[in-house]
Design goal:
CATH class of the largest domain: Alpha Beta
Largest sheet: 10 strands, mixed
CATH superfamily of the largest domain: Spore Coat Polysaccharide Biosynthesis Protein SpsA, Chain A
Number of strands: 10
Number of helices: 12
Structural class: alpha/beta
CATH topology of the largest domain: Spore Coat Polysaccharide Biosynthesis Protein SpsA, Chain A
Length: 311
C-alpha cells in the first residue's frame, strides 16, 4: 500500500545537520510516509549518516552525481509513491505535529492541492517567527500566493505540501535556473492554485549568515522573470511580487559588487512603485548595505529579526 506522504530530502554536504533533519521526520506524530534521500554528490559524511538510519524501512537512499538541488528534488519526485509530496531541506527541521496538521487540513479540504505552514528562523540558537503579508482571520487562510508573499514567501520549501499531480500540471523544478529555482516553481503554482496557509508553525529554517558572502554565482543565473511578462500586465499582485524579487536580486548583486547584475535587475523593475525605504537602498553603496546585513543578523541573534534581510 502506498504511503500518504513522500518526504524528499536533497542532500549535499550537510553532515552537521542531516541527523537532526531526519530525526524531525522520524518524530512526526503522523507516521504514514516514506522518506526519499537523494545524495547529490556530497563530499562529506552525510551519506553515511543516512545509511545508519536505514534500519527504518520507510527510508530510501539514492546517490547521484552532483547536478544541483533541482535535479535532486525532481529525481525524488519521480520516485515518490505517496499521493502528497513534502520537501525537507537537509539543514531544516519539522516540529512533530507538522504532517498531522497538514493531513487534518487535507481531510477537511479534499479538493485543495497546495498546503503551507508558517515557519520560524533559527540563527545562532535564537528562534524567531517569519513575518507574512497575510491578515490573520482564523487558524488558516486561503490565500493568493503573490499577495501573501510580499514580506516572506507563503510557500517555503520545507513547510509546504503538494498533491503530486500539481507537478504534472505545472512542471517540476527548472534545472536551468541556478538560483531561485524554488521561487520559479512557486510562481507557476501560484498562477494556477490557491494556497491553504496554516498559521501554526510547522518548520524551522536554519538561517546561514554566510550564504550571501560565500555564494559567488552570477546573480543573473537566478530565476528569469521575463517569461512571466505576459501575465504581469493583467495581474497586479504578480507584478508587485516580481518587482520585490527583482529588488532583492539587485541588492544581492550590489552586495557582491556585481555592477552588471545590479543594473540588470534594477532596470527590470519600476523603482517608483517600491516603498521609499527600498528605493533608498538601491542607491546605497555596498559597504553600507553590508552594515545593514550585519545589523539584521545581530537583530536575529537576539531574537528581534523576523525575516531574512532581503527583500
Amino acid at each position: 500500500m502506498s504511503p500518504f506522504f513522500s518526504i524528499i530530502i536533497p542532500l549535499y554536504n550537510k553532515e552537521k545537520y542531516i541527523r537532526k533533519t531526519l530525526n524531525s521526520a522520524f518524530s512526526q506524530s503522523f507516521s504514514d510516509y516514506e522518506i526519499i534521500v537523494v545524495n547529490d554528490g556530497s563530499e562529506d559524511a552525510g551519506g553515511n549518516i543516512v545509511k545508519e538510519e536505514m534500519v527504518d524501512p520507510r527510508i530510501r537512499y539514492y546517490e547521484t552525481e552532483n547536478r544541483g538541488v533541482s535535479s535532486a528534488r525532481n529525481f525524488g519526485i519521480s520516485l515518490a509513491e505517496g499521493r502528497f509530496i513534502a520537501f525537507l531541506d537537509a539543514d531544516d527541521y519539522w516540529y512533530p505535529h507538522f504532517l498531522q496538521e497538514i493531513y487534518t487540513y487535507i481531510c477537511r479540504f479534499p479538493e485543495q492541492k497546495v498546503f503551507a505552514a508558517a515557519i520560524e528562523f533559527e540563527y545562532k540558537g535564537k528562534v524567531t517567527k517569519a513575518e507574512y503579508s497575510i491578515k490573520k482571520t482564523a487558524d488558516y487562510e486561503m490565500v493568493n500566493y503573490f499577495e501573501a508573499s510580499c514580506k516572506f514567501t507563503a510557500i517555503f520549501t520545507s513547510s509546504a505540501v503538494f498533491e503530486k499531480d500539481v507537478f504534472e500540471a505545472v512542471g517540476d523544478f527548472d534545472t536551468t535556473v541556478k538560483r531561485g529555482e524554488d521561487t520559479d516553481l512557486w510562481i507557476r503554482i501560484g498562477l494556477s492554485y490557491e494556497i491553504l496557509f496554516i498559521w501554526r508553525v510547522g518548520a524551522v529554517y536554519c538561517y546561514d549568515s554566510n550564504s550571501l558572502s560565500r555564494n559567488g554565482k552570477d546573480m543573473r543565473e537566478s530565476a528569469s522573470f521575463s517569461k512571466y511578462a505576459e501575465f504581469e500586465g493583467g495581474n497586479k499582485a504578480l507584478k508587485k511580487f516580481l518587482d520585490l524579487n527583482r529588488f532583492s536580486l539587485a541588492i544581492q548583486s550590489r552586495l557582491r559588487n556585481d555592477k552588471s547584475g545590479f543594473l540588470y535587475f534594477r532596470n527590470s523593475l519600476k523603482v517608483n512603485d517600491l516603498p521609499f525605504r527600498k528605493r533608498l537602498m538601491l542607491f546605497l553603496p555596498s559597504w553600507l548595505l553590508w552594515i545593514l546585513v550585519y545589523l539584521k543578523n545581530l537583530w536575529m541573534k537576539v531574537g528581534l529579526g523576523k525575516s531574512v534581510f532581503v527583500p
